[in-house]
Input
Amino acid sequence: MRWLVTGGAGFIGSHFVRTALTEEWTDEVVVLDLLTYAGNLENLRPVERHAGFSFVRGDICDPDVVAKSLVDVDAVFHFAAESHVDRSIESAASFVRTNVVGTQIMLDAARTAKVKRFIHVSTDEVYGSLALDAAERFVETRPVQPTSPYAASKTASDHMVLAAERTHGLDAVVTRCSNNYGPYQFPEKFIPLFVSNAMEGKPLPLYGDGRHVRDWIHVDDHIRGLRLAWERGGSGEVYNLGGECERHNRDIALAIVRAVGADESLIQPVTDRLAHDRRYAIDPQKARAELGFEPGPPIEERMAEIVDWYRENRMWWQRIKAGEYRGYYERMYSGR
Ligand code: NAD
Ligand code: TYD
Output
């Protein structure tokens, strides 16, 4: 079987590719990735010599590159996206281009190439925000209500996928996952930013009152859910994948400083993100019942392992922090 993985040089896509090849989920993986600031070939080094691995540097918005990458492909796992909320607040244009237009180009090409299944990797952020004390959690039938430009662009892409399934009969499944953590996560995201800053003795910029809630899932549990969605999911269905691990940001920050052995005084409140969603909470019951999906242990049980990875792979994140990302960090956090 040949799989096309878009965005396979990013955090979650590369975890999927490394696992799919080493655990023999398939014999061939073609990665299509533009290598934006978030894409990094180092993430694929463990499989770069694998006989079934090939890499195409290209844009999902380029129909010719996409069509060539899809030759003889059985399934598409579509990860490629602009993925950081704060960047979408700075400028939404690349989010609409890649997440919406890029997804539409992928869908049209997948149909022409007669791909057997299209797995669209989406997010719980499409549902919007819950009150801290709300009894409900996100279920797949909940109306979408995105607030950030990132979430709005992912919502639009979900609709394009479901429309292609209904209108043109493309076999497609949408998954909506909660916040991921794990190795190789780009250090602009909350956990790797706080872990790496704590290791460097730098401030940990906690937005607002720090009582925002996210549902945390290890990237390994997420990609196993994606495999199940490919194997057992119904076409045209949406599946929520979550860690059943809701935590306040402040508690995650405290767990990080303890695991790193840094001082709590590094945690510093900064001006809140615009329209910062208060709480995300995934109900994964449908995925559990229909796919056999089960989230793994809670984040506290994995914190030492995460911190160890970032400690042992200092060069990986130090190189990133010394590059293009530095300008973004200075713009984002100076005077906040
Ligand atoms: P990431 O930012 O680490 O990686 C994105 C990858 O897409 C990069 O390798 C980048 O080079 C590539 N890319 C961007 N634009 C491209 C284009 N035009 N053409 C080809 N490649 C392009 O993102 P991630 O955190 O690994 O997220 C992957 C997917 O999972 C995204 O679709 C995201 O919305 C979704 N998701 C992420 C999370 C999370 O917590 N990180 C949670 C739920 C869903
Ligand atoms: P993030 O990793 O950006 O994921 P998302 O916004 O997609 O959930 O942020 C996770 C949470 O951490 C979110 O509530 C915002 C907060 N946060 C901070 O408090 N400080 C930071 O520097 C960052 C990047 C995020």
